[in-house]
Amino acid sequence: MLHQISREILADPAFSSGSLADRLTAEQRQSQWLGAPGATEAELDAMEERLHITLPPSYRAFLQASNGFGPLNRFIWRLKPCAEVDWLVKTEAELVEMWEVDVETVPSVPDEEYFIYGKKQNSVQVRGEYFRGLLLVSDWGDAGFLALNPDVHHQGEWEAWHFANWIPGAVRYRSFAELVQAHLAAYQAIKNGARQ
C-alpha cells in the first residue's frame, strides 16, 4: 500500500509541479519512494519503552516497513518516525485542555452510537475522555493530524483518529491500516475528480 501511495503521489501534478510540489524532496523524486528505511527492532523497543506501550500490529508493521512516511495525501503531509511519536497531551496540551472543557458535563457517547465506522459514522460522536490518551503519529498537515487511541481495541488493533479543521469531531477507524486504506481511497477519489 505504501508503494502504491508513493507511485500515485509522485505522479500527481499537484505534487510534481503544482501547489504541493514543495512537500516532496529531491531524494523522494529520485528514489520514487516517500518512505524511510524501516525501523529496527531496537528502535521499536526503545519507542515502546519510552511510551510505556506495546504497539498495535498494523502500526508496528508500518514502522517496520517505513520509519516515517509522507506525504500520505494532500492533507496529511508526514507520518512521524519512531523517535518523534509522542502523546498528544505532551505536544498539544492546550488543544487537549480545550477539548476537555465539556468532558465532565457532557455525557459520554453510548456504545451503540460510538462503535459505528465507515460512511454511517457521525464524526461528532467522539468521546472526550479519550483525548488525553491519544498518541500523535503525524505532523500537522493541512489543518489536520492523525492519532491512535489505545483505549479502544478492535481485534488487537487500536482505534485511529483523523482530526481536521473541516471535520466536526474526528473520523475514526478500527485500526491504523484501515485509516491508511481509507485515506488512499479518498485521495484517489479527489485526484480523479480533479482530472474530470
Describe the protein in words.
With 196 residues, the protein is α+β, with helices and mostly antiparallel strands. The chain has a single domain, classed as SMI1/KNR4-like. The protein is built from 9 helices and 5 strands, in the order αααααβαααββββα. The protein has helices at 2-11, 13-16, 26-31, 41-51, 57-65, 88-91, 93-99, 111-114, 176-195, and strands spanning 86-87, 135-136, 144-154, 157-164, 171-173. Strands 1-2-3-4-5 form a 5-stranded antiparallel beta sheet. A hairpin with a 2-residue loop joins strand 3 and strand 4 (157-164). The radius of gyration is 17 Å and the shape is globular. It starts with a helix and ends with a helix. InterPro entries: Knr4/Smi1-like_dom, Knr4/Smi1-like_sf. It comes from Hymenobacter cellulosivorans. Residues 38-182 form the Knr4/Smi1-like domain. It holds the Pfam family SMI1_KNR4. This is SMI1/KNR4 family protein.
Order of helices and strands: HHHHHEHHHEEEEH
Mean pLDDT: 93
SS summary, helix count: 9
Backbone structural class: alpha+beta
β-strand amount: 5-15%
Find the CATH topology. Answer: SMI1/KNR4-like
Question: In one word, what is the shape?
Answer: globular
Compute the separation of the termini in Å: 25 Å
CATH homology superfamily name: SMI1/KNR4-like
